[in-house]
Write a structure and sequence with these properties.
Blueprint lengths: L1 E5 L3 H12 L3 E5 L18 H6 L4 H6 L3 E3 L1 E6 L5 E5 L11 E3 L2 H14 L3 E3 L4 E5 L4 E4 L2 E4 L2 E4 L6 H6 L2 E2 L6 E8 L13 E6 L2 E9 L2 E9 H5 L4 H8 L4 H7 L8 E3 L4 E3 L3 E2 L2 E3 L5 E2 L7 H19 L6 H21 L2 H8 L6 H11 L9 H15 L24
Parallel strand pairs: 1-2, 1-11, 2-7, 4-14, 11-20
Antiparallel strand pairs: 3-6, 4-5, 8-9, 9-10, 12-18, 13-16, 13-17, 14-15, 15-16, 18-21, 19-20
Bound molecules: flavin-adenine dinucleotide (FAD).
Length: about 425
């Protein structure tokens, strides 16, 4: 089978590596020469078994000096409460750690792995469109026909835009400003290697240690604040006022360059068609609060490669789509809770913990959306079912912030 893949980011590279290791031909079209900057630097532990399956061991990560990540830490700006979720405290079978990665180097590692296994890279090659009649990738050097085409073009959403199926209904109306800085003292309660997230009413701020003297920092804010706030550096500097603890730790540092993304999330209405599939960011993008993006792209690519190997290019990809939908909708439900003050007070930053719920949150933070013993996931599913029954849209869910700090198994409406 000969598969053409648009984009050499994690989604495209993992799809290609999986296919070639199973004996197929994979061609990747990538417009940028790697290494290139990309945002999305905190991986989830459930990425690890997939990378290991493709021959990228923990040792390979260590050899490239990536920062081990063993927990996610959160800081509630208004109350000063903090919570640390060590992955080792999660549910049986979940991986207990992963790495923080500077994406320029990491994406090259994944792409090199695909090439080393036999994938063919066309680069720089910019894809202009997909000829769906001929099943051909049309690019700046010609057009090549394939048995199957994968759109892994990321936020470019090449095929989604061509088909007119990208929409922003349900967009949480948020934007991001971000970059790298040299030094940052640890947040209270955080340990070396943790991703730390500060939550304010106006948005949230990530802090990710990448290597000695290099941190990734970014603010996710209501879109208006970013669009109308001046240069990305101005937006960053001015909106730090919502995160006084982080501002204090930063001691005046502003990323140089500071970058911005004005529209974070969007949905793609259909991710499969005859002879093609859309995956990773090309298949939709959700708020990055729980660092799910690379995992969703990686897992979808790995599963797609195996499904095509088993069923051939004309197979019914309904089961693949259902698994991908489940991953996405589970994280969407989790993200909506994050923007729900009731959940944040009662469960996330709870002073007394309900152990099964606490473990379940950790399992989901590690990226496991199907653990059979996850009590938190069971509650989340009930909430999703209630919402589906009421056909509530995907707009922001807001409830008044409660002062209740007791553990509870109620996760809101
Ligand atoms: C603010 C922010 C913070 C984030 N934080 C995290 C995080 O902490 N952890 C996490 O896991 N995820 C995070 N993400 C998400 C993460 O960046 C993406 O989900 C991930 O990169 C998706 O991988 P992908 O392979 O689908 O797309 P990409 O990584 O974007 O790769 C797509 C590739 O396609 C190429 N391409 C595009 N168009 C064409 C074309 N026409 N022709 C040829 N090539 C093309 C591009 O050059 C690119 O290399 C974050 C995202 C944002 C916006």
């Amino acid at each position: 089978m000969k598969v053409g893949i648009i984009g050499g980011g994690p989604g495209g590279a993992v799809t290609a590596a999986t296919l070639v290791r199973l004996g197929h031909e994979a061609h990747i079209y990538e417009s940028e020469v790697f290494p290139r900057f990309h945002i999305g630097e905190s991986l989830l532990p459930c990425n690890m078994p997939i990378y290991e399956d493709l021959g990228i061991s923990r040792e390979a990560f260590r050899q490239q000096s990536y920062q081990p990540k063993t927990a996610a830490h959160f800081e509630h700006v208004a109350s000063g409460r903090t919570v640390r979720f060590p992955f080792a405290d999660g549910l049986a079978g979940d991986p207990a750690s992963i790495f923080q990665v500077e994406r320029s180097r990491f994406d090259k590692l994944l792409l090199d792995t695909a090439i080393a296994n036999g994938a063919i890279l066309h680069c720089p090659a910019t894809v202009a469109s997909v000829d769906l009649e001929r099943l051909a990738i049309v690019h700046d050097r010609g057009a090549d026909a394939y048995d199957f085409i994968v759109d892994a073009s990321g936020r470019e959403t090449l095929l989604g835009r061509q088909l007119g199926i990208v929409d922003r209904d349900g967009d949480l109306m948020r934007a991001a400003v971000f970059g790298h800085i040299a030094d940052l003292p640890l947040a209270p309660g955080a340990e070396i290697g943790d991703i730390s997230i500060a939550k304010a009413d106006e948005g949230w701020c990530w802090q990710i240690p990448l290597e000695p003297r290099k941190w990734s920092i970014g603010l996710v804010l209501k879109r208006e604040r970013v669009i109308k706030g001046g240069t990305p550096a101005d937006v960053f500097r001015n909106n730090l006022a919502f995160f006084p603890q982080v501002r204090e730790r930063l001691g005046g540092q502003v990323p140089d360059p500071t970058r911005s993304i004005p529209n974070i999330s969007y949905r793609v209405r259909e991710r499969i068609g005859p002879g093609y599939a859309l995956l990773g960011d090309a298949g939709g993008f959700i708020d990055p609060i729980f660092s799910s993006g690379v995992l969703l792209a990686t897992r979808a690519g790995w599963r797609l490669g195996r499904a095509l190997h088993a069923g051939g290019p004309r197979m019914d990809l309904g089961a693949w789509k259902a698994e991908t939908d489940h991953d996405l909708s589970t994280f969407v439900a989790f993200i909506k809770l994050w923007y729900d003050g009731h959940f944040v007070d009662n469960l996330f930053f709870a002073e007394r913990r309900d152990p099964p719920i606490y473990q379940g949150i950790i399992s989901l933070l590690a990226g496991n959306t199907t653990h059979p013993d996850n009590a938190f996931l069971a509650l989340l599913k009930k909430r999703m079912a209630r919402q589906n029954a009421r056909t509530v849209g995907t707009s922001d869910v807001r409830r008044p912030t409660s002062d209740v700090k007791q553990p509870t198994t109620d996760i809101g409406q």
